[in-house]
Amino acid sequence: MLASKFHPLRELRIRVVRSFLDIIILLILRKKPSSGYDIFRCLVNAGIVMSPGTIYDTLHLLERKGYIEGIWDSRKKIYSLTRRGEEYLKAFLAEKESILEVMNEILVKA
User: Fold this and answer.
1) CATH for 10-109?
2) 21: number of CA atoms within 13 Å, CB side?
3) Any idea what the Cα angle at residue 8 is, between residues 22 and 57, rounded to 5°?
4) Domains in the chain: boundaries
5) Tens of pLDDT along the chain (110 residues)?
6) 54, 71, 88, 95: which is deepest, by most CB within 10 A?
7) DSSP 67
8) Which distant-in-sequence residues (6+ apart) come within 8 Å of 66 by Cβ?
9) Residue 81: beta bridge partners?
């Protein structure tokens, strides 16, 4: 039986991506409107493997919050960033340094 190897950086990356998946999706949609599948492929191409179900759940949450809007185009829904979503993203990015400082404090005190 092979022992499972623990890769701290990979585990940390997965946790960070899960925690900030909404922001990552908003950043993707900021570049161009995309379908859920397009977002999934973009994440896979960036080395982020996540279940499509998790991505679609996050898309639905963002849509309910009014941060994105989905419009049906033939057989797929194309999502785009709303003004509210852009404002939320700008506010988050304005606090990026503060978020990194909090993460650093947590890791230093651990």
Assistant:
1) 1.10.10.10
2) 22
3) 20
4) 10-109
5) 455 676 777 777 788 888 899 999 999 999 999 999 999 999 999 888 889 999 999 999 999 999 999 999 989 999 999 999 999 999 999 998 898 888 888 878 76
6) 88
7) S
8) 82, 84, 85
9) 68
